[in-house]
Amino acid sequence: LREKTAAGMMDCKKALTECDGDMEKAVDWLRQKGLSKAAKKAGRATSEGLVGFELAADGKSGVAVEVKCETDFVARGDKFQGFVKDMVAQVAKGEYADSEALLAAPFVADASVTVKEALDGVIATTGENMGLGKFAKMELAAGKSGLIGGYLHSNGKLAVLVEMQTGSDAAAASEAFHEVAKNVAMQIAAASPLAVSAEGLNPEVVEHEREVYRQKAREEGKPEQIIEKIAEGAVKKFCKDVCLLDQLYIRDDKMTISDLIKGAAKTIGEPITVVRFVRIQLGAE
């Protein structure tokens, strides 16, 4: 709980006691007391491994695959890295509903075994436990002009795929469009948004945040008649922090990502839309 929230030892102990050992409730308890930085710490990776990543040469698709192991030593080894590359090729060539379907599929590098059997072979060779984590294949919507942009962090433990659409193939091929796609992908990697815009946020997440702020206001002794107004104001700020288009641009905090995209659209003479994105960080929830 300390690792996740950066709260003090005794505060964590009290939170767990108050919440009967429930970790998630304890996180909320600490946030309501103003003792936690959980929102900024929750995505910290705790395991070793790599996120395999590849963008298609034609810009129409991209793949990211999380493969976990126990130590950084093994993650840097040729055997493990070769398996990660094979898994990128595996996901790029197939369609898998979930991890179980992926593990049961014939292995792309040796069809005589399944992905699970190939993984077991790498485990036996390295002597470390391993596992497949999150994976994604993103393809440009049929009949649309645009590209799948992406970003792989230099440590190989964080990857982003983002679908960007525009009005014509000529605009999609322009340097300005490719540049804004790259910058948007880097923004997603650095700022970890939850959705493109407020409309895409899970209503349950928004309501959960609203309730946290209500309770925090009560803990601070605020009058009951203004608590709802305080909570609404805090939720609006939360939405701006976690919605991609409303976030301040990491390279220029005088503009939002929406401003960045409008500027690029003006340059290419066509509208630009961020359709969706996937952010995969090693070990993160």
Please characterize this protein's 3D structure.
This protein is an alpha+beta fold and 285 residues long. Helices cover 47% and strands 24% of the residues. It contains 13 helices and ten strands. The strands form four sheets. A three-stranded antiparallel beta sheet has the order 1-2-5. Helix 3 (23-32) crosses helix 11. The longest helix is centred in the last third of the chain and has 19 residues, at 224-242. 33% of the residues are buried. Mean pLDDT is 91; it is low at 41-46.
Distance, first to last CA? 14 Å
User: What is the 3D form?
Assistant: flat
Low-confidence stretches: 41-46
Read across the widest sheet, the strand sequence of neighbours is 1-2-5
- Strand segment tally: 10
Helicity range = 40-55%
The gyration radius over C-alpha positions equals: 22 Å
- Tell me about the largest β-sheet: 3 strands, antiparallel
**Approximately what portion of the residues adopt beta-strand conformation?**
15-25%
How would you state the average pLDDT, rounded? Answer: 91
Q: How many DSSP helices?
A: 13
Look at the helices and sheets and give the structural class: alpha+beta
SSE arrangement, N to C? HHHHEEHHHEEHEEEHHHHEEHE
